[in-house]
Every structure is written in structure tokens, then in C-alpha cells.
Write a structure and sequence with these properties.
heterodimer; A: 240 residues; alpha/beta; Rossmann fold; 6-stranded mixed beta sheet; 3-stranded antiparallel beta sheet; 8 helices; 9 strands; 38% helix; B: 284 residues; mainly alpha; 13 helices
């Protein structure tokens, strides 16, 4: 059995530069390509059971890298291989509809995350229980506070047990009480999933849970190493 | 908590593109496999449209009926049309054309309006235009309930040809889906497309048999006949004749060309969509 869970081979990803139709035509006739390189030559192998963190400054390509792994962006060069189903935890509550009840939104968000009907109906009680919404679950979502929405989002997202879990800065939702609970929940998901990749600015968390940390800068991997070393490299980057 | 260790999943490549030439078929299978998601997205859309309205879904019937009464009044004033069924034909035209134009706008904007969802999770992006069109099909079929009182008021017979009503509506939605899937990736690159499409759907209102009927066009000689080559003539006329209790009564060449163009639009639309969707998403 190969124990590689995620394999990135020389990933290159460009974003086109947004411009008007005249710019596009001019570039087309001059055979010029204007683009922004978001990731260049990113190669990484993540073993099963590993927890890998990604750090880097704003705009260094962390979130983009997670999106490439989950198939949202197709790399312009290189290949992404993964073993098993992938779930990206980011922007909890995306796609929520303010006019439907919490219960309906739970089903909606679950189906957006790729769950079948039976699975969702089966997990619904657990989700409602975890969200601590009580009777609010049958009220329309527009009556919810921001924290309540976030709780519902996390409750749905955390009902999943994927092989590969990608986490993009979702910690710190809700009141301190719930934040503690959600951190525990995410940590238990991290334990439950066989492979985890976390993007976070919370270095404390990174040192706690990650086996290795990748430092990205301008779309390139600067270092891959143990958390302490990568965090040190991050601060060195800032001094330059 | 389940452990997946016993059945170690194999390494597979992410984001492998299937041949765009199979897109016309893949689109259908993708909608089928993701039907729970499609259903939820349609529900979100329909609920959103009729939120906080005391009359709620009744607006699906009221809106085209009110619109038709305005057009009817206008037309009677301008030309004094004697056909007592004219108001009904306008109403049905408004419903079917509305289905097409709303579906087309929904499909065109489906990628640009769902950026946040697209950045969160990957599922076949066909789902976005398909559920946009699906929501409008649901609303239109609700609007079609207006046919029941019409049948009673105008003392029409209930015949098996009523089946052409949903078929016509579906054909309008089907064409909107194909056309919209062509436009959706383009709209990601340049938002001018959505303004252009909004204009096209408004102008198309007059070029299509909404305020006029195929029969009226046939009486107008060459120009009238030329107007019948518009592929929207068939679905609208199909619905009208269905209510009237007869099989669609148009020249065979017109019927065939409309069916062929609907299928071609769908084939080209799905191919264009699957070929350019991935690149287009990077513009968002």
C-alpha cells in the first residue's frame, strides 16, 4: 500500500489579468499574455496520517493551493493526485439562504459540500444538536445572529468524515464558549481524518497539531520543515 | 467515528477533464448524480423569489396575468383585434417567453453569481446553470396553473394535447440552458455579456410570438414567414395549441428546424461550457 495521500508535482497556476475587451484583443493580436503567477513549481507530498500546515504572508498563495488540491482551480502545469475524498473547510455558511429555516439550510449546505440525501437526513439530528440552536433551527436564517450562522455552518461541515481535510482559517467563530467547542471539534476532525492540511495564521495551533509546516512566499515553497523551523523562516522573511 | 484505514483509497488525479465532446451527455448524468444538490439549489432560488409575500406563490400566476392584461389592452387599443382568445394567447406567450428569458439570464449569470460557492467546494459546475434554469421551470409550471381557469372561462375542452404545455415550457428552458451555458463562461471574463443578454431577452420579446401568434405572422407574407424561423416560435405555439386542444399546427420545416436548432444550441452550449468553464473561473 502506498501511503501517499496528496501529491503535488510541479504545480503552476496563473491567474489572468482582468482587463477590458480592447486589452484582450490587443494582447491577442500581439500574442502577448499578461497574467499573474499565483503558484509556481509547488511540489509537495503528504503522507497518510500527516497533518501539514501552510503559512505565509497575505497573498502568498495559501488558499489558492488548498483550492488546487480540492480541484477548484485546475493547475496550468503539473498534476495533483489525492487518495480519497477531500473536504475543504472555508467560508462556513456559504450558500446559505436567508429565507429558509436552519434545518433547510443545513440540508442545503450539506448538499453543497457533497453529501447525499440519506446521509444528511441521518446526520441532521447530530448537526442540530451540535449547533446549539435549539428551537431556532426552524426559524428562517435571516433571524440568526452572525455567530448562530457560523455555528450552523460549522455543525454541518464538521459532520463530515473525509479522508483528506483541508482547513482554511475557520477557527474563531462564535462566542468564546462555542469557539472552544469548535476548536475541539475541529481537532477531533483532524484526528479522525487521515490527512489534514491547515492554512492558518495561528502559529500556536500550527505548532500544536502539525507534523510539518510549509512556508509559502510569492507562490513558491520556501521551506518545508518542522513547525518551529518554518515559523522561524517566516519571521526571517519579514525582516528581509 | 469511522476509520477508513482498512480500505485505503487509491491515489487518483484531481481535476481530470473529460473530453468536451461528451459534454452533452455528461451534463445530463451530472445533473442526475447531483440531484439532491440541484433540488436544494432550486428550492433556495424559488423560496428566495417569493419570500415575505403574503400572496406568495400566487404571484407566479398573477404576474404574467397582470402583464398580459396590459399588453392585451394596448393591443386592442392599437389594432382592435377581434379574436376573443387573443388575451389568452398573449398570456401564454408571456409565460413561455418569460420562462426562456429568465432562464437564459439565470444561466448566463450562474457562474458569476456563485463565486463564493465555487471557491468553497468543487462539484460539476454544470449544476449552476442547470439549477438556475430548473428554478425557472418550476416557477413557470406553477404559472401554467392559470390555464385551468382559462379553460373554464373560455369553455375549452380538456384534451390529451394539454401535455404539450409542459413540453413547450421544457423546450424553452432547454434552449435557454444551452444558450446560457455558452454565455456563462464568457460572462466571467467580461460582464458586458450579461448586459447584452438582458438586451437580447428584451428585444427577443418582440421578435418572438409573444404579442403576436404564428397564425398572424403567416397572414403577413414573406416577412411574417421569415419571423417563424425563430426557434422560440415552436415552444410558444406548442403551448397555445395545446391549450386549444390540438397538435402544434406549424409548417413541418419550421417544426423540424426549431427542434434541430434547440438540440444544436444545447450541444454547442454544453461543449463550450465544459471547455472554457475552468479557465473562466480563474477570472472570478
Amino acid at each position: 500500500m502506498t501511503d501517499t495521500s496528496i501529491q503535488l508535482d510541479g504545480i503552476k497556476l496563473h491567474f489572468p489579468k482582468q482587463r477590458n475587451i480592447f486589452g484582450i484583443l490587443a494582447d491577442f493580436f500581439r500574442k502577448r499574455v499578461r497574467r499573474f503567477t499565483a503558484l509556481s513549481d509547488v511540489s509537495l507530498e503528504v503522507k497518510q496520517g500527516e497533518v501539514v500546515g501552510i503559512i505565509g504572508r497575505n497573498g502568498s498563495g495559501k488558499s489558492t493551493l488548498l483550492r488546487v488540491i480540492s480541484g477548484i482551480y485546475q493547475p496550468d502545469e503539473g498534476a495533483v493526485l489525492a487518495a480519497g475524498d477531500i473536504t475543504l473547510l472555508a467560508g462556513l455558511g456559504t450558500g446559505f439562504s436567508p429565507h429558509q429555516t436552519g434545518r433547510e439550510n443545513a440540508l442545503l449546505f450539506g448538499s453543497i459540500l457533497g453529501h447525499g440525501e440519506e446521509e444528511m437526513l441521518q446526520k441532521l439530528d447530530e448537526i442540530i444538536d451540535f449547533s446549539e440552536l435549539g428551537t431556532f433551527i426552524d426559524e428562517p436564517l435571516r433571524t440568526y445572529s452572525a455567530g448562530m450562522k457560523a455555528r450552523l455552518g460549522l455543525a454541518v461541515a464538521s459532520a463530515i468524515r473525509p479522508n483528506i481535510l483541508l482547513i482554511d482559517e475557520v477557527l474563531g467563530v462564535g462566542d468564546p464558549n462555542f469557539r472552544e467547542k469548535s476548536k475541539k471539534k475541529i481537532l477531533s476532525m483532524v484526528e479522525g481524518a487521515s490527512t489534514v492540511v491547515i492554512v492558518s495564521h495561528s502559529f500556536g495551533l500550527m505548532t500544536d497539531v502539525c507534523d510539518r509546516v510549509v512556508l509559502l512566499d510569492h507562490g513558491k515553497i520556501v521551506t518545508i520543515g518542522d513547525p518551529q523551523a518554518a515559523i522561524k523562516a517566516y519571521y526571517d522573511l519579514g525582516e528581509k | 467515528m469511522e476509520e477508513n484505514a482498512s480500505t485505503a483509497p487509491v491515489l487518483r488525479r484531481i481535476g481530470v477533464k473529460s473530453n468536451p465532446l461528451f459534454a452533452p451527455i455528461h451534463t445530463l448524468t451530472e445533473i442526475r448524480t447531483n440531484r439532491f444538490l440541484v433540488r436544494n439549489l432550486i428550492r433556495r432560488e424559488v423560496r428566495g423569489q417569493y419570500r415575505n409575500a403574503s400572496l406568495g406563490y400566487a404571484w407566479a400566476v398573477l404576474e404574467p396575468a397582470l402583464l398580459a392584461s396590459v399588453y392585451w389592452f394596448l393591443f386592442i387599443m392599437l389594432s382592435g383585434n377581434p379574436d376573443k382568445m387573443y388575451a389568452v394567447w398573449v398570456l401564454l406567450g408571456v409565460i413561455v417567453w418569460g420562462c426562456f428569458s429568465k432562464s437564459l439570464n439565470a444561466a448566463t449569470n450562474s457562474l458569476t453569481n456563485n463565486v463564493r460557492t465555487m471557491h468553497l467546494v468543487y462539484f460539476p459546475r454544470t449544476i449552476f446553470p442547470a439549477s438556475g434554469v430548473g428554478a425557472n421551470l418550476v416557477v413557470t409550471l406553477m404559472s401554467c396553473l392559470v390555464i385551468l381557469p382559462i379553460i373554464y372561462i373560455y369553455d375549452l375542452e380538456i384534451t390529451v394535447h394539454l401535455i404539450w404545455v409542459p413540453i413547450g415550457v421544457f423546450m424553452a428552458g432547454f434552449m435557454a440552458l444551452g444558450f446560457g451555458m455558452m454565455m456563462a463562461p464568457l460572462n466571467c471574463v467580461q460582464r458586458d455579456i450579461q448586459h447584452l443578454i438582458r438586451f437580447v431577452t428584451r428585444a427577443g420579446f418582440f421578435v418572438s410570438p409573444v404579442m403576436w401568434t404564428a397564425e398572424m405572422a403567416l397572414e403577413r407574407g414573406a416577412w411574417g414567414e421569415a419571423a417563424l424561423w425563430n426557434p422560440m416560435v415552436l415552444p410558444i405555439t406548442m403551448v397555445r395549441h395545446g391549450v386549444e386542444g390540438k397538435l402544434v399546427d406549424l409548417p413541418t420545416s419550421i417544426v423540424l428546424s426549431s427542434i434541430v436548432s434547440a438540440i444544436m444550441i444545447y450541444i454547442v452550449g454544453t461543449i463550450v461550457f465544459s471547455k472554457y468553464e475552468r479557465g473562466a473561473v480563474k477570472y472570478l
